[in-house]
Design goal:
Blueprint: H1 3-29, E1 35-39, H2 46-62, E2 66-70, H3 77-84, E3 92-97, H4 98-107, H5 115-118, E4 119-135, H6 143-151, E5 158-161, H7 167-179, E6 184-187, H8 191-200, E7 205-209, H9 210-218, E8 222-227, E9 253-261, H10 266-279, H11 283-290, E10 295-296, H12 301-322
Parallel strand pairs: 1-2, 1-3, 5-6, 5-7
Antiparallel strand pairs: 3-9, 4-7, 4-8, 4-9, 4-10
Helix pairs in contact: 2-10, 4-12, 7-12
């Protein structure tokens, strides 16, 4: 081999090795600039509050700057797509919610976003249980009594929701499907008006996020019969689960987590997962999440990816069984 050819081969080998080493070098030096944590909803809600608690914890744990950025629109689609289309350099992440992403996909399979393909997980953060709540004058004080009462009046009891296709509507549809009951669905423009009418006796029941309903339950204005998670909630441990009444497959909740655009370096998402799992053991952060009506749920990167897929499959089945047709994502 001539000296000239040898030099060219060595140059080519050096160039190839530098390209291979580049991602490792990048991941090892990350982060070197602020990380944007996109919230696909307006400021002030529970998802936004969760993001700000987690951003502060991550910033302290990783010795980095984490900035929360609200990108609301189309029930979470606008913000999610902005992250999906972002450069996968580790500096743009999504505060994701199964109540938005999984149900969105279930309600409209043609939605231009696929959580399984368009994102990589950095792990779960928290779970938000819902409650089955009835008007305080309804003659049913326990879940078994309510089931007996509902079975004797098919189609007569009125079930409010925050709107057709929202997470609390889907929770109610799954309850009817598994319990073989039938309610008259009354959609509202938000859970607040639905709660007002439940207190006033205009409707009989709702499935509602614990965060927004707890004050009314504790004030005795409405009656909570059960929690929708498959385990008792640390926020209201005295309440039974719906599954315990014989509906063993019933589970309805919202899990939050962090997603990055597909193609983000594995070392980056692992660093975020390590930081998440550490800060979610912090009692101060756990207490702050509890004040939002949620419970800390640290886990692996795969955990959140599996939850998203399972929730999408579950709600797709419920939407199809109930014949729900809407393009309005929850």
């Amino acid at each position: 081999m001539t000296t000239l050819k040898l030099k060219k081969n060595l140059l080519g080998l050096a160039t190839g090795l530098s390209l291979i080493a580049a991602p490792c070098s990048f991941a090892a030096s990350w982060p070197q600039q602020p990380i944007r944590l996109v919230v696909p909803f307006p400021a002030g809600g529970n998802i936004d509050a969760t993001a700000r608690i987690i951003a502060k914890g991550l910033a302290e744990q990783m010795k980095a700057t984490v900035v929360v950025e609200n990108k609301a629109g189309a029930a979470g689609l606008v913000g999610a797509q902005s992250v999906m289309r972002a450069k996968p350099d580790g500096y743009t992440a999504l505060l994701a919610s199964t109540g938005s992403l999984a149900a969105m996909r279930a309600l409209d399979p043609k939605v231009p976003l696929d959580p399984a393909k368009d994102f990589v997980s950095a792990g779960p953060i928290s779970i938000a249980p819902m409650l089955l709540i009835v008007n305080k004058d309804l003659p049913a004080r326990t879940l078994p009594e309510f089931l007996k009462y509902a079975h004797s009046r098919p189609g007569e009891l009125t079930m409010g929701s925050a709107g057709t296709g929202t997470s609390n509507h889907l929770a109610g549809e799954m309850f009817q499907n598994l319990s073989k009951t039938k309610f008259l669905h009354v959609p509202y423009k938000g859970s607040g008006p639905a709660m007002t009418d439940l207190i006033g006796g205009q409707i009989d029941l709702i499935f509602d996020q614990m965060a927004s309903s707890l004050p009314q339950v504790k004030a005795g204005k409405v009656r909570a019969l059960a929690v929708t998670t498959n385990e008792k909630s640390e926020l209201m441990p005295e309440l039974p689960t719906i599954a315990s009444a014989g509906l063993k497959d019933y589970e309805a909740s919202t899990t939050t987590g962090i997603l990055f655009p597909a193609g983000t370096a594995p070392n980056v998402t692992k660093q975020v997962n390590d930081a998440l799992r550490t800060i979610l053991q912090n009692q101060s952060i756990r207490t702050q999440l509890q004040q939002l009506g949620t419970e800390a749920r640290p886990g692996t990167q795969d955990d959140f990816q599996h939850i998203l897929q399972n929730e999408t499959d579950k709600w797709t089945g419920i939407v199809n069984a109930a014949g729900i047709t809407t393009n309005a994502h929850p």
